[in-house]
Amino acid sequence: MISLWHFLAVGAVLFGLGLIGFLTRRNLITMFLCAEMMLQGVVLNFLAFGRYHGNMSGQVFGLFIITVAACEAGLALALFLTLYRRGKSLDSADWQTVREAGLPPTVDTDPLPRPPAEPLPPTLPVAGRLPDTFAASHPETTRA
Amino acid sequence: MPPALANPVAQLALAAVLGLLGFYLLLPKPRLRSVAGGTFLVIAAFAVLAGFVYLRFGKPIESLLPDVLFCLFAGGAVLFGTLLVTNRNPARGAIAFAFVILSTCGLFLLLAAPFLVAATIIIYAGAIIVTFLFVLMLSQVTGPSDENDRTREPLLGSLAGFAFIGLLLMTLNLSAAQPGAAVADAPPLPVEPLTKADRKLLAEAAQELDTVPTADDLVKIQAAVKAAKDKIAEIVGEPGQPLSGATVFDRHRLFAQGTADAREAAFLRATDKLQRANVKMEDEAALATSVDGAKAAAKKLRDELALYSGYGQLPARNVANVGFVLYSEHILAVELAGTLLLVATIGAVAIAGRRKEATA
Protein backbone atom coordinates (compact mmCIF):
# COMPACT_ATOMS: atom_id res chain seq x y z
CA MET A 1 0.00 0.00 0.00
CA ILE A 2 1.05 3.55 -0.55
CA SER A 3 3.76 4.86 1.72
CA LEU A 4 3.39 8.32 3.12
CA TRP A 5 7.08 8.75 3.91
CA HIS A 6 8.34 8.47 0.35
CA PHE A 7 6.14 11.31 -0.80
CA LEU A 8 7.06 13.39 2.24
CA ALA A 9 10.75 12.85 1.40
CA VAL A 10 10.25 14.04 -2.18
CA GLY A 11 8.29 17.04 -0.94
CA ALA A 12 11.05 17.91 1.53
CA VAL A 13 13.72 17.71 -1.17
CA LEU A 14 11.70 19.90 -3.54
CA PHE A 15 11.16 22.47 -0.80
CA GLY A 16 14.86 22.43 0.13
CA LEU A 17 16.00 22.89 -3.47
CA GLY A 18 13.59 25.78 -3.90
CA LEU A 19 14.89 27.27 -0.66
CA ILE A 20 18.48 27.15 -1.92
CA GLY A 21 17.46 28.79 -5.19
CA PHE A 22 15.43 31.49 -3.48
CA LEU A 23 18.21 32.31 -1.04
CA THR A 24 21.12 32.37 -3.46
CA ARG A 25 19.97 33.33 -6.95
CA ARG A 26 19.79 37.00 -7.87
CA ASN A 27 17.62 36.95 -10.99
CA LEU A 28 14.11 37.93 -9.88
CA ILE A 29 12.42 35.52 -12.31
CA THR A 30 14.53 32.57 -11.18
CA MET A 31 13.78 33.44 -7.55
CA PHE A 32 10.07 33.47 -8.36
CA LEU A 33 10.26 30.05 -10.06
CA CYS A 34 12.12 28.65 -7.04
CA ALA A 35 9.38 29.92 -4.73
CA GLU A 36 6.81 28.17 -6.92
CA MET A 37 8.82 24.97 -6.63
CA MET A 38 8.70 25.23 -2.83
CA LEU A 39 4.92 25.50 -3.11
CA GLN A 40 4.87 22.33 -5.21
CA GLY A 41 6.69 20.49 -2.42
CA VAL A 42 4.07 21.68 0.05
CA VAL A 43 1.19 20.60 -2.18
CA LEU A 44 2.80 17.19 -2.49
CA ASN A 45 2.84 16.90 1.30
CA PHE A 46 -0.82 17.83 1.60
CA LEU A 47 -1.87 15.38 -1.09
CA ALA A 48 0.16 12.58 0.50
CA PHE A 49 -1.46 13.19 3.89
CA GLY A 50 -4.88 13.38 2.30
CA ARG A 51 -4.33 10.09 0.52
CA TYR A 52 -2.98 8.53 3.69
CA HIS A 53 -6.01 9.51 5.72
CA GLY A 54 -8.35 8.71 2.88
CA ASN A 55 -10.18 12.01 2.74
CA MET A 56 -10.40 14.93 0.36
CA SER A 57 -9.11 17.69 2.63
CA GLY A 58 -5.59 17.38 1.24
CA GLN A 59 -6.78 17.90 -2.31
CA VAL A 60 -8.92 20.85 -1.30
CA PHE A 61 -5.95 22.41 0.47
CA GLY A 62 -3.83 21.82 -2.64
CA LEU A 63 -6.44 23.63 -4.70
CA PHE A 64 -6.27 26.64 -2.40
CA ILE A 65 -2.47 26.63 -2.55
CA ILE A 66 -2.65 26.73 -6.35
CA THR A 67 -5.06 29.68 -6.09
CA VAL A 68 -2.69 31.57 -3.82
CA ALA A 69 0.23 30.70 -6.13
CA ALA A 70 -1.70 32.18 -9.07
CA CYS A 71 -2.26 35.41 -7.09
CA GLU A 72 1.41 35.45 -6.18
CA ALA A 73 2.44 34.96 -9.80
CA GLY A 74 0.33 37.87 -11.00
CA LEU A 75 1.56 40.26 -8.33
CA ALA A 76 5.19 39.14 -8.62
CA LEU A 77 5.31 39.62 -12.38
CA ALA A 78 3.66 43.05 -12.08
CA LEU A 79 6.29 44.04 -9.50
CA PHE A 80 9.10 42.74 -11.71
CA LEU A 81 7.79 44.84 -14.58
CA THR A 82 7.77 47.97 -12.41
CA LEU A 83 11.22 47.27 -11.01
CA TYR A 84 12.59 46.64 -14.48
CA ARG A 85 11.19 49.92 -15.75
CA ARG A 86 13.06 51.74 -12.99
CA GLY A 87 16.35 49.88 -12.91
CA LYS A 88 16.56 48.29 -16.38
CA SER A 89 17.74 45.12 -14.68
CA LEU A 90 16.34 42.04 -13.02
CA ASP A 91 19.12 41.91 -10.44
CA SER A 92 17.66 41.82 -6.95
CA ALA A 93 20.89 43.30 -5.55
CA ASP A 94 20.05 46.57 -7.31
CA TRP A 95 17.41 47.10 -4.67
CA GLN A 96 19.63 46.51 -1.65
CA THR A 97 19.30 50.18 -0.76
CA VAL A 98 16.04 49.23 0.95
CA ARG A 99 17.83 46.74 3.23
CA GLU A 100 17.57 46.85 6.99
CA ALA A 101 19.39 49.74 8.67
CA GLY A 102 22.84 48.94 9.98
CA LEU A 103 23.66 46.14 7.58
CA PRO A 104 26.70 46.51 5.34
CA PRO A 105 26.00 46.60 1.62
CA THR A 106 26.84 43.62 -0.55
CA VAL A 107 29.75 44.48 -2.82
CA ASP A 108 30.69 42.29 -5.77
CA THR A 109 34.46 41.94 -5.69
CA ASP A 110 35.24 39.26 -8.23
CA PRO A 111 35.11 40.53 -11.80
CA LEU A 112 32.69 38.81 -14.10
CA PRO A 113 34.21 36.32 -16.49
CA ARG A 114 34.94 37.86 -19.85
CA PRO A 115 32.77 36.56 -22.62
CA PRO A 116 34.87 34.59 -25.11
CA ALA A 117 36.28 37.05 -27.62
CA GLU A 118 34.72 36.78 -31.03
CA PRO A 119 37.17 35.78 -33.76
CA LEU A 120 38.14 38.71 -35.97
CA PRO A 121 36.84 38.69 -39.52
CA PRO A 122 39.39 37.34 -41.97
CA THR A 123 41.60 40.00 -43.50
CA LEU A 124 43.37 39.96 -46.79
CA PRO A 125 47.00 40.98 -47.07
CA VAL A 126 47.59 44.38 -48.51
CA ALA A 127 47.64 44.08 -52.25
CA GLY A 128 50.75 45.03 -54.15
CA ARG A 129 53.12 44.81 -51.21
CA LEU A 130 56.67 45.47 -52.21
CA PRO A 131 59.21 42.70 -51.84
CA ASP A 132 61.23 42.93 -48.65
CA THR A 133 64.51 43.31 -50.44
CA PHE A 134 63.25 46.36 -52.35
CA ALA A 135 61.73 47.90 -49.21
CA ALA A 136 65.00 47.54 -47.32
CA SER A 137 66.96 49.36 -49.96
CA HIS A 138 64.28 52.09 -50.49
CA PRO A 139 62.92 52.99 -47.04
CA GLU A 140 60.91 55.98 -48.34
CA THR A 141 58.51 53.62 -50.17
CA THR A 142 57.42 51.73 -47.02
CA ARG A 143 54.03 52.72 -45.78
CA ALA A 144 53.55 54.14 -42.37
CA MET B 1 28.22 -1.02 2.39
CA PRO B 2 30.72 0.03 5.06
CA PRO B 3 29.32 -0.43 8.55
CA ALA B 4 29.59 3.27 9.34
CA LEU B 5 27.07 3.93 6.56
CA ALA B 6 24.50 1.47 7.86
CA ASN B 7 23.25 4.15 10.22
CA PRO B 8 20.47 6.18 8.56
CA VAL B 9 21.65 9.37 10.26
CA ALA B 10 25.13 8.86 8.82
CA GLN B 11 23.61 8.36 5.38
CA LEU B 12 21.66 11.59 5.75
CA ALA B 13 24.72 13.50 6.92
CA LEU B 14 26.78 12.18 4.02
CA ALA B 15 24.07 13.10 1.52
CA ALA B 16 23.75 16.60 3.00
CA VAL B 17 27.51 17.25 2.89
CA LEU B 18 27.83 15.94 -0.67
CA GLY B 19 24.82 17.98 -1.81
CA LEU B 20 26.13 21.10 -0.06
CA LEU B 21 29.51 20.87 -1.79
CA GLY B 22 27.92 19.95 -5.12
CA PHE B 23 25.53 22.90 -5.05
CA TYR B 24 28.35 25.22 -3.98
CA LEU B 25 30.31 24.15 -7.05
CA LEU B 26 27.30 24.26 -9.38
CA LEU B 27 25.81 27.63 -8.45
CA PRO B 28 26.89 30.31 -10.93
CA LYS B 29 29.64 32.58 -9.68
CA PRO B 30 32.74 34.19 -11.21
CA ARG B 31 35.27 31.92 -9.49
CA LEU B 32 35.28 28.32 -8.29
CA ARG B 33 32.46 27.11 -10.52
CA SER B 34 32.98 23.56 -11.63
CA VAL B 35 30.10 22.02 -13.53
CA ALA B 36 31.65 18.57 -13.83
CA GLY B 37 32.67 18.24 -10.18
CA GLY B 38 29.39 19.77 -8.97
CA THR B 39 27.31 17.43 -11.12
CA PHE B 40 29.22 14.45 -9.83
CA LEU B 41 28.78 15.48 -6.19
CA VAL B 42 25.07 16.28 -6.60
CA ILE B 43 24.40 12.94 -8.30
CA ALA B 44 26.28 11.19 -5.51
CA ALA B 45 24.26 13.09 -2.90
CA PHE B 46 20.91 12.18 -4.45
CA ALA B 47 22.02 8.57 -4.90
CA VAL B 48 22.84 8.37 -1.18
CA LEU B 49 19.50 10.04 -0.41
CA ALA B 50 17.61 7.57 -2.60
CA GLY B 51 19.46 4.72 -0.89
CA PHE B 52 18.45 6.11 2.50
CA VAL B 53 14.81 6.37 1.45
CA TYR B 54 14.79 2.87 0.02
CA LEU B 55 16.58 1.24 2.94
CA ARG B 56 14.63 3.09 5.56
CA PHE B 57 11.10 3.32 4.16
CA GLY B 58 11.06 0.31 1.84
CA LYS B 59 9.27 0.21 -1.45
CA PRO B 60 6.94 3.14 -1.99
CA ILE B 61 3.95 1.30 -3.41
CA GLU B 62 3.99 -2.44 -3.27
CA SER B 63 3.47 -3.14 -6.91
CA LEU B 64 5.92 -2.91 -9.77
CA LEU B 65 4.46 -0.38 -12.16
CA PRO B 66 3.52 2.33 -9.63
CA ASP B 67 6.93 1.83 -8.05
CA VAL B 68 8.70 2.46 -11.33
CA LEU B 69 6.47 5.46 -12.00
CA PHE B 70 7.17 6.84 -8.55
CA CYS B 71 10.94 6.55 -9.07
CA LEU B 72 10.64 8.16 -12.49
CA PHE B 73 8.56 11.11 -11.34
CA ALA B 74 10.43 11.68 -8.09
CA GLY B 75 13.79 11.50 -9.88
CA GLY B 76 12.53 13.83 -12.60
CA ALA B 77 11.27 16.37 -10.09
CA VAL B 78 14.58 16.41 -8.21
CA LEU B 79 16.70 16.47 -11.38
CA PHE B 80 14.85 19.33 -13.02
CA GLY B 81 14.62 21.17 -9.72
CA THR B 82 18.40 21.04 -9.50
CA LEU B 83 18.64 22.31 -13.08
CA LEU B 84 16.27 25.19 -12.28
CA VAL B 85 18.34 26.27 -9.30
CA THR B 86 21.77 25.96 -10.87
CA ASN B 87 21.21 27.01 -14.48
CA ARG B 88 22.48 30.51 -15.20
CA ASN B 89 20.07 31.06 -18.09
CA PRO B 90 16.59 32.00 -16.78
CA ALA B 91 14.87 30.81 -19.98
CA ARG B 92 16.30 27.33 -19.50
CA GLY B 93 15.29 27.60 -15.86
CA ALA B 94 11.68 28.19 -16.93
CA ILE B 95 11.80 25.07 -19.12
CA ALA B 96 13.24 23.04 -16.23
CA PHE B 97 10.42 24.36 -14.04
CA ALA B 98 7.88 23.11 -16.60
CA PHE B 99 9.38 19.65 -16.23
CA VAL B 100 9.28 19.94 -12.44
CA ILE B 101 5.57 20.67 -12.74
CA LEU B 102 5.01 17.69 -15.04
CA SER B 103 6.90 15.37 -12.67
CA THR B 104 5.00 16.52 -9.61
CA CYS B 105 1.78 16.10 -11.58
CA GLY B 106 2.76 12.47 -12.10
CA LEU B 107 3.20 12.14 -8.35
CA PHE B 108 -0.21 13.76 -7.82
CA LEU B 109 -1.69 11.14 -10.11
CA LEU B 110 -0.10 8.40 -8.01
CA LEU B 111 -1.74 10.09 -5.01
CA ALA B 112 -5.14 9.77 -6.65
CA ALA B 113 -5.78 13.42 -7.46
CA PRO B 114 -6.61 13.59 -11.19
CA PHE B 115 -8.55 16.84 -10.88
CA LEU B 116 -5.62 18.57 -9.22
CA VAL B 117 -3.33 17.27 -11.97
CA ALA B 118 -5.52 18.85 -14.62
CA ALA B 119 -5.80 22.12 -12.69
CA THR B 120 -2.06 22.30 -12.04
CA ILE B 121 -1.11 21.64 -15.63
CA ILE B 122 -3.60 24.15 -17.01
CA ILE B 123 -2.72 26.92 -14.55
CA TYR B 124 1.02 26.41 -14.58
CA ALA B 125 1.18 26.02 -18.35
CA GLY B 126 -0.19 29.55 -18.59
CA ALA B 127 2.02 30.79 -15.79
CA ILE B 128 5.14 29.31 -17.33
CA ILE B 129 4.41 30.74 -20.76
CA VAL B 130 3.88 34.18 -19.23
CA THR B 131 7.11 33.84 -17.26
CA PHE B 132 8.86 32.84 -20.43
CA LEU B 133 7.59 35.95 -22.20
CA PHE B 134 8.86 38.03 -19.29
CA VAL B 135 12.27 36.43 -19.60
CA LEU B 136 12.36 37.17 -23.31
CA MET B 137 11.20 40.75 -22.76
CA LEU B 138 13.27 41.75 -19.79
CA SER B 139 16.40 39.67 -19.72
CA GLN B 140 18.84 39.94 -22.56
CA VAL B 141 21.25 37.09 -22.05
CA THR B 142 23.93 38.31 -24.43
CA GLY B 143 26.86 38.08 -22.06
CA PRO B 144 27.72 37.61 -18.42
CA SER B 145 25.54 39.73 -16.19
CA ASP B 146 25.31 40.43 -12.49
CA GLU B 147 21.95 38.78 -12.02
CA ASN B 148 22.74 35.54 -13.84
CA ASP B 149 26.39 34.96 -13.09
CA ARG B 150 26.53 35.92 -9.44
CA THR B 151 24.83 34.35 -6.45
CA ARG B 152 24.36 35.62 -2.96
CA GLU B 153 26.29 33.56 -0.40
CA PRO B 154 26.26 30.28 -2.34
CA LEU B 155 27.92 28.32 0.47
CA LEU B 156 25.60 29.54 3.22
CA GLY B 157 22.53 29.20 1.03
CA SER B 158 23.35 25.60 0.12
CA LEU B 159 24.12 24.92 3.78
CA ALA B 160 20.69 26.25 4.78
CA GLY B 161 18.92 24.20 2.14
CA PHE B 162 20.66 20.93 2.82
CA ALA B 163 20.54 21.35 6.59
CA PHE B 164 16.79 21.82 6.12
CA ILE B 165 16.46 18.71 3.95
CA GLY B 166 18.63 16.64 6.29
CA LEU B 167 16.76 17.66 9.43
CA LEU B 168 13.38 17.10 7.82
CA LEU B 169 14.37 13.64 6.64
CA MET B 170 15.75 12.91 10.09
CA THR B 171 12.38 13.61 11.65
CA LEU B 172 10.80 11.36 9.02
CA ASN B 173 13.39 8.75 9.98
CA LEU B 174 12.30 9.04 13.62
CA SER B 175 8.61 8.81 12.85
CA ALA B 176 8.76 5.89 10.40
CA ALA B 177 8.56 2.29 11.54
CA GLN B 178 11.75 0.37 12.22
CA PRO B 179 12.36 -1.71 9.11
CA GLY B 180 12.80 -5.03 10.91
CA ALA B 181 9.86 -4.78 13.26
CA ALA B 182 7.60 -3.01 10.84
CA VAL B 183 6.70 -6.11 8.88
CA ALA B 184 5.48 -8.08 11.86
CA ASP B 185 3.94 -5.22 13.77
CA ALA B 186 2.83 -3.13 10.84
CA PRO B 187 0.10 -0.68 11.63
CA PRO B 188 -3.17 -1.48 10.00
CA LEU B 189 -3.58 0.40 6.82
CA PRO B 190 -5.02 3.68 8.00
CA VAL B 191 -7.97 3.65 5.72
CA GLU B 192 -8.81 0.48 3.93
CA PRO B 193 -10.56 1.37 0.75
CA LEU B 194 -13.97 -0.13 0.38
CA THR B 195 -13.68 -3.55 -1.15
CA LYS B 196 -15.34 -4.47 -4.37
CA ALA B 197 -18.05 -6.30 -2.49
CA ASP B 198 -18.86 -3.27 -0.32
CA ARG B 199 -19.09 -1.03 -3.28
CA LYS B 200 -21.22 -3.57 -5.05
CA LEU B 201 -23.60 -3.55 -2.11
CA LEU B 202 -23.82 0.21 -2.14
CA ALA B 203 -24.17 0.35 -5.89
CA GLU B 204 -26.92 -2.22 -5.73
CA ALA B 205 -28.66 -0.15 -3.10
CA ALA B 206 -28.35 2.90 -5.32
CA GLN B 207 -29.61 0.96 -8.30
CA GLU B 208 -32.58 -0.34 -6.41
CA LEU B 209 -33.41 3.19 -5.42
CA ASP B 210 -33.32 4.07 -9.09
CA THR B 211 -36.49 2.14 -9.69
CA VAL B 212 -39.60 3.22 -7.88
CA PRO B 213 -39.07 1.87 -4.39
CA THR B 214 -41.68 0.54 -2.08
CA ALA B 215 -41.37 0.50 1.67
CA ASP B 216 -40.20 -3.12 1.50
CA ASP B 217 -37.43 -2.15 -0.89
CA LEU B 218 -36.28 0.55 1.47
CA VAL B 219 -36.01 -1.94 4.30
CA LYS B 220 -33.92 -4.16 2.05
CA ILE B 221 -31.66 -1.25 1.13
CA GLN B 222 -31.29 -0.37 4.77
CA ALA B 223 -30.14 -3.89 5.50
CA ALA B 224 -27.64 -3.72 2.63
CA VAL B 225 -26.18 -0.46 3.92
CA LYS B 226 -25.90 -1.90 7.38
CA ALA B 227 -24.08 -4.96 6.01
CA ALA B 228 -21.60 -2.72 4.20
CA LYS B 229 -21.07 -0.68 7.34
CA ASP B 230 -20.43 -3.77 9.44
CA LYS B 231 -17.98 -4.99 6.88
CA ILE B 232 -16.04 -1.75 7.10
CA ALA B 233 -15.97 -1.85 10.88
CA GLU B 234 -14.66 -5.39 10.65
CA ILE B 235 -11.87 -4.38 8.27
CA VAL B 236 -10.67 -1.30 10.07
CA GLY B 237 -11.09 -2.61 13.57
CA GLU B 238 -12.92 -1.33 16.57
CA PRO B 239 -11.78 1.82 18.38
CA GLY B 240 -10.70 1.81 21.99
CA GLN B 241 -7.64 -0.40 21.82
CA PRO B 242 -4.99 0.23 24.51
CA LEU B 243 -2.26 2.73 23.72
CA SER B 244 0.96 1.54 25.34
CA GLY B 245 4.26 3.16 24.41
CA ALA B 246 2.59 5.72 22.22
CA THR B 247 4.61 6.07 19.06
CA VAL B 248 3.78 7.99 15.98
CA PHE B 249 2.37 4.78 14.64
CA ASP B 250 -0.17 4.54 17.40
CA ARG B 251 -1.18 8.06 16.71
CA HIS B 252 -1.62 7.19 13.08
CA ARG B 253 -3.65 4.19 14.11
CA LEU B 254 -5.86 6.42 16.24
CA PHE B 255 -6.19 8.75 13.30
CA ALA B 256 -7.22 5.83 11.17
CA GLN B 257 -9.83 4.85 13.65
CA GLY B 258 -11.06 8.40 13.79
CA THR B 259 -11.45 8.35 10.03
CA ALA B 260 -13.20 5.02 10.21
CA ASP B 261 -15.52 6.47 12.85
CA ALA B 262 -16.24 9.42 10.63
CA ARG B 263 -17.10 7.15 7.77
CA GLU B 264 -19.22 5.03 10.01
CA ALA B 265 -21.00 8.19 11.06
CA ALA B 266 -21.53 9.04 7.43
CA PHE B 267 -23.09 5.66 6.88
CA LEU B 268 -25.20 6.09 9.96
CA ARG B 269 -26.38 9.37 8.57
CA ALA B 270 -27.28 7.66 5.33
CA THR B 271 -29.11 4.94 7.21
CA ASP B 272 -30.88 7.52 9.28
CA LYS B 273 -32.00 9.30 6.18
CA LEU B 274 -33.14 6.03 4.77
CA GLN B 275 -35.20 5.42 7.86
CA ARG B 276 -36.74 8.83 7.74
CA ALA B 277 -37.46 8.43 4.07
CA ASN B 278 -38.89 5.07 4.91
CA VAL B 279 -41.33 6.57 7.37
CA LYS B 280 -42.18 9.29 4.93
CA MET B 281 -42.72 6.79 2.18
CA GLU B 282 -44.94 4.72 4.39
CA ASP B 283 -47.02 7.80 5.06
CA GLU B 284 -47.12 8.60 1.44
CA ALA B 285 -47.92 5.04 0.56
CA ALA B 286 -50.81 5.28 3.01
CA LEU B 287 -51.92 8.49 1.42
CA ALA B 288 -51.16 7.10 -2.03
CA THR B 289 -50.94 10.57 -3.44
CA SER B 290 -47.47 11.85 -4.19
CA VAL B 291 -45.53 9.29 -6.21
CA ASP B 292 -43.38 12.04 -7.67
CA GLY B 293 -42.32 13.24 -4.23
CA ALA B 294 -41.31 9.72 -3.27
CA LYS B 295 -39.37 9.42 -6.49
CA ALA B 296 -37.51 12.66 -5.79
CA ALA B 297 -36.62 11.54 -2.26
CA ALA B 298 -35.40 8.23 -3.57
CA LYS B 299 -33.29 9.96 -6.22
CA LYS B 300 -31.64 12.13 -3.62
CA LEU B 301 -30.85 9.09 -1.52
CA ARG B 302 -29.51 7.32 -4.56
CA ASP B 303 -27.11 10.19 -5.29
CA GLU B 304 -25.81 10.17 -1.74
CA LEU B 305 -25.32 6.42 -1.78
CA ALA B 306 -23.47 6.67 -5.06
CA LEU B 307 -21.21 9.29 -3.52
CA TYR B 308 -20.50 7.09 -0.52
CA SER B 309 -19.80 4.13 -2.73
CA GLY B 310 -16.99 6.11 -4.35
CA TYR B 311 -15.75 7.61 -1.11
CA GLY B 312 -13.24 4.96 -0.08
CA GLN B 313 -11.41 5.02 -3.37
CA LEU B 314 -10.28 8.58 -3.93
CA PRO B 315 -9.91 8.33 -7.70
CA ALA B 316 -13.47 7.16 -8.09
CA ARG B 317 -15.59 10.19 -8.84
CA ASN B 318 -12.74 12.46 -7.89
CA VAL B 319 -14.22 15.63 -9.35
CA ALA B 320 -17.59 14.96 -7.75
CA ASN B 321 -15.96 14.31 -4.40
CA VAL B 322 -13.75 17.42 -4.60
CA GLY B 323 -16.76 19.51 -5.49
CA PHE B 324 -18.83 17.97 -2.74
CA VAL B 325 -16.21 18.63 -0.06
CA LEU B 326 -15.33 22.07 -1.47
CA TYR B 327 -18.87 23.37 -1.44
CA SER B 328 -20.08 21.66 1.71
CA GLU B 329 -17.24 21.88 4.21
CA HIS B 330 -15.05 24.65 2.81
CA ILE B 331 -17.52 27.12 1.34
CA LEU B 332 -16.13 30.07 3.33
CA ALA B 333 -12.59 29.28 2.18
CA VAL B 334 -13.81 29.18 -1.41
CA GLU B 335 -15.30 32.63 -1.04
CA LEU B 336 -12.12 33.94 0.58
CA ALA B 337 -9.97 32.48 -2.21
CA GLY B 338 -12.18 34.12 -4.82
CA THR B 339 -11.89 37.46 -3.03
CA LEU B 340 -8.14 37.03 -2.82
CA LEU B 341 -7.91 36.41 -6.56
CA LEU B 342 -9.99 39.51 -7.26
CA VAL B 343 -7.86 41.68 -4.98
CA ALA B 344 -4.66 40.29 -6.49
CA THR B 345 -5.89 41.02 -10.01
CA ILE B 346 -6.76 44.58 -9.10
CA GLY B 347 -3.42 44.97 -7.33
CA ALA B 348 -1.47 43.64 -10.29
CA VAL B 349 -3.23 46.03 -12.64
CA ALA B 350 -2.65 48.92 -10.26
CA ILE B 351 1.05 48.12 -9.88
CA ALA B 352 1.89 47.43 -13.51
CA GLY B 353 -0.44 49.90 -15.17
CA ARG B 354 1.29 53.16 -14.28
CA ARG B 355 2.78 53.87 -17.66
CA LYS B 356 2.88 57.66 -17.42
CA GLU B 357 4.96 57.64 -14.28
CA ALA B 358 7.42 55.19 -15.74
CA THR B 359 8.01 57.12 -18.94
CA ALA B 360 8.15 60.51 -17.24
Can you tell me the CATH topology of the domain at 4-90 in chain A?
Answer: Helix Hairpins
Largest protein interface?
Answer: A-B, 83 and 105 residues
Which percent range describes the beta-strand content of chain B?
under 5%
DSSP, total strands of chain A:
0
* CATH class division of the domain at 4-90 in chain A: Mainly Alpha
Number of strands of chain B: 0
Mean pLDDT of chain A: 85
Structure write-up:
Chain A has a domain at 4-90: Helix Hairpins (Orthogonal Bundle), CATH 1.10.287.3510. By secondary structure, chain A is mainly α. Chain A contains four helices and no strands. The model of chain A has no long low-confidence stretch (mean pLDDT 85). Chain B has 360 residues and is mainly alpha-helical. Chain B has three domains: 3-183; 196-329; 330-360. The N and C termini of chain B lie far apart (68 Å). Classes of the chains: A mainly alpha (144), B mainly alpha (360). Chains A and B meet through α1, α2 and α3 of A and α2, α3, α4, α5 and α6 of B.
Quick structural summary:
The complex is a heterodimer of chains A (144) and B (360). Chain A is mainly alpha-helical and 144 residues long.
Topology:
The complex is a heterodimer of chains A (144) and B (360).
Chain A lengths: L3 H21 L3 H26 L3 H31 L44 H6 L7
Chain B lengths: L7 H19 L8 H23 L6 H23 L3 H21 L3 H25 L7 H4 L4 H22 L3 H6 L11 H15 L4 H22 L11 H40 L3 H19 L8 H11 L2 H22 L2 H5 L1
Helix pairs in contact in B: 1-2, 1-7, 3-4, 4-5, 9-10, 9-12, 10-11, 11-12
Task: From the structure above, extract its key features.
heterodimer, A: 144 residues, mainly alpha, Helix Hairpins, elongated, B: 360 residues, 3 domains, 15 helices, 77% helix
